[in-house]
Task: inverse folding
């Protein structure tokens, strides 16, 4: 669906009662993408090659999901209905996307708030991944071996990336935290659900000298900026497994809950269950389908549930992630 107001969309007003809303995905072309993402999640898009799908993004005039049955983007909804979010931030604070790369991503990091603000007027982007699927030999780049910043710079200058970059085997269903300043890259064919701060500041240090088919040129690198921002010593910790806990007919995995950053849970239901989260939340379906209250949801879809909405009744066989946010104060 194009990012414009459709003639048959109602224009909302401030007296609209809280309700569950579907969020349309926002697609981004990437040189390491393809059609697999569209086929796996039954998406429709003219974008090709699709590298990542933003299930939740609200960066106005840049990347912004449409809200179904409204004449609004997600950033519009956030501004128009602040009581549906009750956040301490000017913009929606979280972002969700799914990646299924058909080639390795560039070696990169995200800087902290102070650097991002001076660099592009943005914010730092700590993030986290949960591995949804991967080949037996699936891997990610995560961390580095340099003991000092000078050593890191020297190895980058000599293109000694094989000895500089750490690679670790992925573990399906496990969680990995990626603080600002962490070297990282998702490997080929590793399907991930990602949550991050709603920001966009990525610094690349290596991209395999490959050419972007869209331009016929190599992509820009930010080597000096990476050297300034990389964590020395390396602080990467790898994958963590969190247990499922049965709650009201749901199997719930609680991954992260940090005020001022994000809250992430996974919820699986086999037949029937109930779930309640006091804060606003986005639920992204990664397998199956269900009826949540009066809304039917299927694999690949995302719904928004407003703040203090109440109890959700879930009927079906479904696997979904819940992304939310607690105010920092």
Result:
């Amino acid at each position: 669906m194009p990012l414009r107001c459709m003639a048959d969309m109602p224009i909302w007003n401030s007296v609209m009662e809280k309700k569950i809303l579907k969020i349309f995905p926002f697609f981004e072309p990437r040189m390491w993408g393809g059609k697999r993402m569209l086929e796996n999640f039954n998406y429709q898009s003219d974008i090709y090659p699709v590298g990542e799908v933003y299930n939740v993004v609200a960066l106005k005039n840049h990347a912004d999901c449409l809200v179904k049955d409204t004449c609004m983007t997600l950033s519009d909804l956030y501004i128009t209905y602040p009581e549906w979010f009750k956040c301490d931030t000017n913009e929606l604070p979280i972002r969700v996307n799914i990646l299924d790369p058909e080639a390795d991503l560039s070696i990169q990091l995200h800087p902290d708030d102070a650097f991002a603000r001076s660099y592009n007027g943005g914010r730092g982007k700590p993030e986290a991944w949960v591995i949804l699927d991967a080949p037996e030999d699936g891997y990610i780049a995560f961390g580095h071996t340099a003991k000092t910043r000078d050593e890191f710079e020297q190895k980058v200058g000599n293109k000694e990336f094989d000895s500089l970059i750490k690679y670790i085997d992925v573990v399906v269903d496990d969680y990995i935290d990626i603080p600002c300043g962490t070297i990282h890259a998702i490997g080929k064919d590793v399907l991930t659900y990602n949550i991050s701060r709603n920001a966009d500041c990525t610094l690349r240090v290596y991209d395999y000298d490959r050419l972007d088919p869209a331009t016929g040129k190599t992509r820009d690198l930010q080597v000096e900026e990476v050297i300034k921002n990389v964590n020395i010593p390396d602080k990467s910790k790898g994958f963590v497994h969190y247990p499922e806990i049965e709650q009201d007919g749901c199997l719930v995995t609680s991954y992260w809950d940090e005020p001022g950053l994000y809250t992430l849970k996974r919820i699986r239901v086999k037949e029937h269950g109930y779930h309640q989260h006091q804060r606003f939340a986005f639920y992204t379906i990664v397998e199956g389908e269900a009826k949540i209250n009066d809304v039917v949801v299927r694999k690949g879809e995302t719904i928004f549930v407003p703040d203090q909405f109440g109890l959700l009744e879930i009927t079906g066989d479904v696997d979904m992630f819940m992304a939310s946010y607690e105010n920092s104060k």
